[in-house]
Amino acid sequence: MNKDLISRITINPKIMAGKPVIKGTRIPIDLILKMLSQNISIDEILAEYPRLCKEDIQTALLYGSIVISEPVLLAFFNPP
User: Fold this and answer.
1) Is the predicted pLDDT of residue 36 greater than 60, yes or no?
2) Which of 8, 10, 35, 63 would bridge with 40, disulfide CB 3.0–4.6 Å?
3) Could you tell me which of 14, 13, 21, 19 has the C-alpha nearest to residue 51?
4) Is the predicted pLDDT of residue 79 greater than 70, yes or no?
5) Range of the domain at 47
6) How many structural domains compose the chain?
7) Is 20 left (phi over 0), alpha (psi -120 to 50) or beta?
């Protein structure tokens, strides 16, 4: 895991209701992932949110891959 990328994320109950966001912004990780899933290009995301950089997009992808690999979440989506 790239600790430099993960350190770009912050979670604060007073910011975006505690959703993980890119540090120094109110841009939630789930928004970035949703945009990518809708085939919105990285360049389009960066144009829409100029405070973001490519490393922030990589951070969102890394965070998503970590979260989805958690057994508790997998059990929720794949009940016995």
Assistant:
1) yes
2) 35
3) 21
4) no
5) 3-77
6) 1
7) beta
Minimal CA–CA distance to 25: which of 45, 42, 8?
Answer: 8
Instruction: Tell me the pTM.
Output: 0.82
- Dig out the tokens for 2 from the structure: 């790239």
Token reading at 8: 């770009």
Quote the distance between the C-alpha of residue 14 and its chain's center.
18
Nearest of 19, 25, 13 to residue 53 by alpha carbon: 25
End-to-end CA distance of the chain: give it in Å, rounded.
30
CATH of the domain at 48: 1.10.10.10
